[in-house]
Amino acid sequence: MNRTQEVARLRVDYQRELARGTDRFHEPKRTECPWCGSSRLRTRLRTVDLLQHKPGTFVIDQCRDCSHSFQNPRLTPEGLDFYYRDFYDGLGADLTEWVFNGRGNRKRYRASARALLPFGTPRRWLDVGTGHGHFPQTARTVHPATVFDGLDVGEGVEEGKRQGRIAEAHRGLLTELAPKLEGQYDTVSMFHYLEHTTDPRAELTAARTVLAPGGHLIIEVPDPECLSSGLLGRWWMPYFQPQHLHLIPLANLRRELESLGCTVVAVERHEPHIPFDLTGAVLLALVHALPPADDPWRAEPPSGLQRNAREALFWSSVPVLAGVYGVEQLLAPLIRRTRLSNAYRVVARV
C-alpha cells in the first residue's frame, strides 16, 4: 500500500475523531503553576501545530515566580495519543528514522555518551524515551563494555531490540515500570524526554528508583532561558507544540534532583546545543506557508494544482535551507558559548 492509499484509509478514522471537536483533547486550564503552585502566571506562547499541522491551538504559560513554563491547558491522554499518532510511527516512521539516525544526531549521541566517561564505566544503562534505540546504538561505540536497554511507550523500542540496538526493550511508562526495575541500573539517561512527560517530578523519582546506589542519571532538555526562544517566538523549534508539555529552567531541575537526595556532579550549558534553531525556524515557516499536504487529518485531499505547487515551491527552497543550515553549522561553536545555546545537560549521582 503506497502513502496515498494509506492516507485515504486513515482519513476515515481521523475525520470521525475530528467531527467531535478538539476541545475534548485538553484538560481544564490550570490557574496555578504545576511546579511551585504560584498563581502568578503569564502567557508565554500561543501557537498551532507547526509539526504535523493537525487542528488545534496550544498555549504555553510561564510562572512569574519560578519561571517554569508549561502547556496550559494540557493535553489529555486521548489528546496526546491523537497528536503523537503518525509522528514517530505510522506515516511518520520513515522520516523519523532518517532524522534520528542522521550524521548530526550521531555526533550528538557520542558527545552525550562521553559525558559519562569521567564517572567510570557503566555496567548496565537504561535509556528512557529511547524511541528506536538510536542513542544506545551510537553510545556503544563510546562504552563498548556497557549493556544498553531501552524504555519507551511506542512500538519503536521493540523494533530497536529486533535491530540489535538495545539488549532489552521495556515498553510502557517509566513511572509504572520502575518498581519492577528497582536498583537494576547504574546509569539512566533521559535525552529530550522530560519535556514530553505529564509529570517530570514523578519521572525523576522513578529514575531514582531504578538506579542502584552510586549510579548516575544524565538528563538533557531544551533550555527555556535560551535567548533564541524570545527572538524566534513560535518558530523556535524546541517549543515543539503540542508535544512538549514542560520547559524546565536549570535551577528548578537542579533543586528537584537535590531534594530527591541526588548530588549534581556536572552541569553543561554549551555542548548540548543543537545547531538547528535558525534552520528549524525557516523550515517551520516555509512548510506552514506552503499549500496543504495530503494528510489524513485534512478533510479533503489537495487538488492536483496544490500538490504540484507544494512540490515545486518546496524543492525550489531547498538551496536556501541548505545555505541557512550550512551557516548555522559554521557558527555553532560560537553560538554554543552564548546565551543562544538551546539545551543543557545535568549529571547527578544517587
From TrEMBL:
Signal peptide: none annotated. Keywords: Methyltransferase, Transferase. GO terms for biological process: methylation. CDD domains: AdoMet_MTases. GO terms for molecular function: methyltransferase activity. The keyword Coiled coil does not apply. It comes from the Bacteria. This is Class I SAM-dependent methyltransferase. It comes from Streptomyces luteosporeus.
